[in-house]
Design goal:
Blueprint: H1 2-5, E1 10-13, E2 16-19, H2 21-38, H3 40-49, E3 54-60, H4 62-67, H5 69-79, E4 83-89, H6 92-101, E5 106-109, E6 118-126, E7 128-133, H7 146-150, E8 154-156, H8 162-173, E9 180-183, H9 187-195, E10 201-204, E11 214-218, E12 226-233, H10 240-249, H11 251-261
Parallel strand pairs: 3-4, 3-5, 8-9
Antiparallel strand pairs: 1-2, 5-12, 6-12, 7-10, 7-11
């Protein structure tokens, strides 16, 4: 390649090699071509038989897997029964890394930081709420403050999750101390422990069906809305299976990603 292109593509450091600036340019240019070859059989079959086949790998946060994807996957598999779906439950940050490494077709979640080589397309928006056992003193407080919340022990998801980071940043913004009495993973776990009177929690209403034995108070005055969306690597050549799934989720997202890749 170096001889044919007349450029130095690698820096050789003993047993290791690294890409030069020119090597990085070639890598970025060739990756979509390589991925296009990898998805050629599925694309060819789609054109010939007008059917979608193959595999679909999705990484998603638990909230999306529990509350959003079931209905979408049902519609999708009813239309494309020959697609094999592999669904991985992981934090948004890990999902983004899987997207960057090519381990999954795309990821779905919410995150605070998006790498430069990844496109984030927000699709869903949910309100922050304070949940508490029925009859809790804060349930009737119409002017609830951060100071009011700080008087009670919080049940939060683990510290590495974005929810904890958001809660921590808002309390610091208002210069209010808070205490976490229980750290537990998963919205369903949090709701169960709050129902049992072990504390209160701050969640987004994506996880609320209205059937829980909880009192809820909106916190949009203090906390930002939470968006969930798609993470795709820039320049990614999507398989027919991935394209149709995104189309099923949100046709506008598919159009937006196509526009990003055509820039």
């Amino acid at each position: 390649l170096e001889k044919d292109l007349g450029q130095s593509l690698f820096v050789r450091k003993g047993p290791r090699i690294e890409l030069t600036a020119e090597g990085t340019i070639l890598f970025d240019m060739s990756l979509p071509l390589v991925e296009g070859l990898e998805t050629l059989p599925e694309n060819f079959e789609e054109k010939c038989s007008h059917s979608v086949i193959g595999n679909l790998k999705i990484a998603a946060v638990e909230a999306i897997i529990l509350y959003i994807l079931p209905d979408i996957i049902k519609r999708y598999t009813d239309t494309f029964p020959d697609i094999h779906i592999k669904l991985t439950n992981c934090a948004a940050a890990l999902g983004v890394e899987k997207v960057r490494n090519g381990e999954v077709d795309f990821a779905i979640g919410s995150t605070l930081n998006v790498p430069e080589d990844v496109v984030y397309l927000p699709i869903y928006s949910f309100e922050p709420v304070l949940i508490m056992p029925i009859g809790h003193p804060l349930a009737t407080n119409k002017q609830i403050s951060m100071q009011d919340i700080s008087q009670y022990g919080l049940i939060l998801s683990p510290q590495h999750m974005s929810t904890w980071q958001i809660v921590d940043s808002v309390f610091k913004q208002y210069n209010v101390d808070y205490k976490v009495t229980l750290e537990a993973g998963g919205w369903e776990v949090l709701k169960k422990y709050v129902e049992n009177g072990l504390g209160i929690s701050i969640v987004t209403d994506i996880c609320l069906s209205g059937k829980e034995k909880l009192d809820c108070v909106p916190l949009t005055k203090y906390f930002p809305k939470r968006t969930y969306g798609l993470f795709l690597r820039k320049g990614k050549v999507l398989s027919p299976a991935a394209r149709e799934f995104i189309q099923c989720m949100d046709p506008e997202a598919m159009a937006q990603f196509s526009a990003e890749n055509n820039r």
